[in-house]
Amino acid sequence: MSSSRLQKIRVQALLNIISKEFTQLSRDVRSIIIIVFIPLFLLIVFGYGVTMDIKNVSLVVCDLDRTRLSRNLIEKFISSGFFSLYGEIENINAIDNLLVSGKAKVVMVIPTNFSNEIEAGKSAKVQIIIDGSDANTANVVLGYVQQIIQSFSGEIITNFIFKRTGKLISGVDLRSRVWFNPELKSVNFFIPGLMSLIMMIMTVLMTSLSISRERELGSFEKLISTPLNPFFIITGKTIPYAILAFFDSILILLAGRILFGLEVKGSLFLLLFITAVFIICGLNLGLIISTITKSQQATMAVAFISTVVPTFVLSDFVFPIRNMPLVLQIISYFIPARYYLEIIRGVILKGNWVWEHISSISILFVFMFWTFGIGTMRLKKLMREI
């Protein structure tokens, strides 16, 4: 048989594999739900439900001073938008029950000599009690409290100097500016991370289940009987899922723009190109897992534990890597999502180009070729065993 004839047969066999994968997907309702609805569901849940923005923290006030200055301080807290006044108490003995029951997250106690201390030019004390059962929330709330107290103190100092000297002292004119996310919306932080998580779910789980299903149904023997080497078989099995995963990435970007106003400040071409590279990494990992496991249940378990969980935990998606123990920080260097997330956050939020992320892009390419080589060798070994 001539080489051109053999090449045509291989191309036809490759197209048949791709067509077969699309046909199986169209008949599998669960796969369609995962491909289309799960990304949108996760986007809505993370966009609206999971947020680091803490507002309307229930505040209880015990104002023992009851002067104009104490009321001004209380109003400072309420008008900030971070706190909502749950109620006022007259006896500090009621504080324990309010905190234990969860009705109050923050209690502010203003002593009886509060205004007298300020008017005398002394340092007045205010007691703030915070529910620390949720450490992350408590830290954020503590930051809010310190910010409000500092602002109030600055106003008091200015007024005090004006009364004593008759001169209005402006003090420090602090004008802060937040780059890349001026409104400090946590959704802008979550959506790029959500892309990496969904891409990993789509590529690893779907492709690993593909070959596992073939082995369970006994059709894998027919697949390896075709005149295709492992390279063409891997290509044929992964192209359909690569197309669908790429479609999902565009869907997430569109939904993020429409629902949450998230704009891509950098190059859309670079963003989609890096996404394609990350998709190939995930597809290769899925194929490696499918050659190790023998059943679809085992495949899902291994894929979820070995890829999806590390992507969520060790990619800087939700939990900062720098705050983790050294062992976990070292493991995170072997998670492709870590580099992908760094790149797309830079492109989407900062408008970065290739040179700002050249090291991460290079490592992602290394992962792509490395996983492809391992997947090909594993498939060759599996074909010899069969």
Description:
This protein has helices spanning 3-27, 29-49, 68-79, 95-101, 114-119, 135-165, 187-217, 220-224, 230-260, 268-292, 296-313, 326-332, 336-350, 358-385, and strands at 57-63, 83-88, 106-110, 127-130. By secondary structure, it is mainly alpha-helical. It folds into two domains: 3-50 and 185-385, no CATH class; 57-165, abc type-2 transporter like domain (abc type-2 transporter like fold). β1, α3 (68-79) and β2 (83-88) form a beta-alpha-beta unit. The longest helix has 31 residues, at 135-165. The model is unreliable at 168-174 (pLDDT under 50).
Task: List the main descriptive attributes of the protein structure presented here.
single chain, mainly alpha, 14 helices, elongated, abc type-2 transporter like fold, 68% helix, 386 residues
Strand content: 5-15%
> How far is it from the N-terminal to the C-terminal residue, by CA?
26 Å
**Overall tally of domains:** 2
Number of helices: 14
Average pLDDT, all residues: 80
Q: Give the helix/strand class.
A: mainly alpha
Task: Give a quick account of the main beta sheet: strands, pairing sense, barrel closure.
Answer: 4 strands, mixed
- One letter per element, helices H and strands E, the order comes to HHEHEHEHEHHHHHHHHH
- Identify the overall geometry: elongated
Largest beta sheet: strand ordering? 2-1-3-4
* Rounded Rg: 29 Å
Q: Low-confidence spans: pLDDT under 50, at least 5 residues?
A: 168-174
Total beta strands: 4
| Percent of residues in helices | 55-70%
